[in-house]
Amino acid sequence: MTLGVFERGTGHEQVVFCHDPDSGLEAIVGLYSTALGPGLGGTRFYPYGTEDAAITDVLNLSKGMAYKNALAGIPHGGGKAVIIGDPSTDKSDALLRAYGHFVDSLGGRYITACDMGTAVPDMDIIAGVTRHVTSKSPALGGGGDPSVLTAYGVFRGMLACAEHRWGSASLAGKRVGIAGVGKVGHLLLEHVLDSGGSVVVTDVRQEAIDKVRTAHPEVDVVADTDALIGADLDVFAPCALGGVLNDVTVPVLRAPVVCGAANNQLDHDGLDAELAARGILYAPDYLVNAGGVINVADELHGYSFERARARADRIFGTTKQVLEHAASEGIPPASAADRIAEQRMRDAASRKGSAAEPAG
Q1: Calpha distance 247→360 (Å, rounded)
Q2: What mean pLDDT is reported for the chain?
Q3: Per UniProt, which keywords does this protein have (predicted)?
Q4: Which of the residue ranges 1-15, 46-60, 218-232, 235-249 would you say has the lowest mean pLDDT?
Q5: What pLDDT is attached to residue 5?
Q6: CA 360 to chain CA mean position, Å
Q7: Is there a catalytic annotation at residue 80?
Q8: SS3 of residue 145 by DSSP
Q9: Quick check: 344 and 70 in contact, CB under 8 A?
């Protein structure tokens, strides 16, 4: 196994490469910031076309985790990992163990978890060679499926948006459009229905739509995301792929509130300002979808669902803080969220620096 360090002017503390010829492992870990604590973030297993594409992804993802963890108020910095390959053909126990040794070699600076292409059984294998891993099965002290608290956190953020927009933390009588009803989207629609709201959904997978229709025949279905974006909604909740808010969709979006679970909802910088100019309240995705990372972070302290849920509950208050700061400063909520996260990281780095100074 060989290790190397790659530096690029992105503000990252460290980017580490791993190559293990025996198992075929090709992996990269990005650490954006450890000011608040060890970097925590999932491992994405994906067949990147080039190493540059993998590097770009790990840099973007690890930075996003730093901001998400800072806003969530958990004692962790931002880290993320990618394994280059097709998980359906390249994943093996040997490769996962080699990856676990790679994670362990970082001495706890990075703690891994599930992401696209990896699952709880994979984390259990990794846990056999390193303790710096979360998303384990309950049998190994893990918290199981984090989507439960991801959906709950988005719902709490949605209630905060409702209070800011309409003066009441309630979705009663509101119509919510959910694009993507996988695990998180399906759980979110149940929260909305339980709160007295109505729901309309779309999904590219017929099996997901069939599951919704069977469990909740009162839910409406539209053909695609474009139809949902153009529908008469109170809240639009993107819960599938990123980039759904772009130069084509933002001008025709009718919902006055956007609050969903999908990562990277804005296709490019500047769209948050365009949403604000149109009077649309946008809840930054990395703010409201932090329930999952809150769930896995709790594993490191002896997992308690009740404690993790209580921490996910705080997404309501943090969302209110971000929206109020944005309103008072006359800036988009995404900019306000960035400022708060950056200040928390700066304060933590300053405290660490002061603690490291020798006594005079």
Answers
A1: 57
A2: 93
A3: NAD, Nucleotide-binding, Oxidoreductase
A4: 1-15
A5: 46
A6: 43
A7: yes
A8: coil
A9: yes
Q: Which residues pair with 281 in a beta bridge?
A: 257
Average pLDDT over residues 17-31: 97
Copy the structure tokens of residue 355: 């603690």
User: Is 181 annotated as contributing to ligand binding?
Assistant: yes
* Three-state secondary structure readout of 34-84: CCCCCEECCEEEECCCCHHHHHHHHHHHHHHHHHHHHHHCCCCEEEEEEEE
Rounded to two decimals, the pTM is: 0.89
DSSP 151-166: HHHHHHHHHHHHHHHH
Domain boundaries, the chain: 2-63+77-140, 147-343
Whether 2 has a pLDDT exceeding 90, the answer reads no
Asked if 2-63+77-140 and 147-343 have one fold, the answer is yes
180 is in an annotated binding site: yes
255-270 mean pLDDT: 94
* Segment 187-192 mean pLDDT: 98
Give the residue from 325, 321, 290, 322 showing the smallest Cα distance to 308. Answer: 290
- Superfamily (CATH H level) for 147-343: NAD(P)-binding Rossmann-like Domain (3.40.50.720)
Active-site pick, 68, 80, 136, 174: 80
CATH class for the region spanning 2-63+77-140 = alpha beta
What would the two tokens of residue 84 be? 């280059």
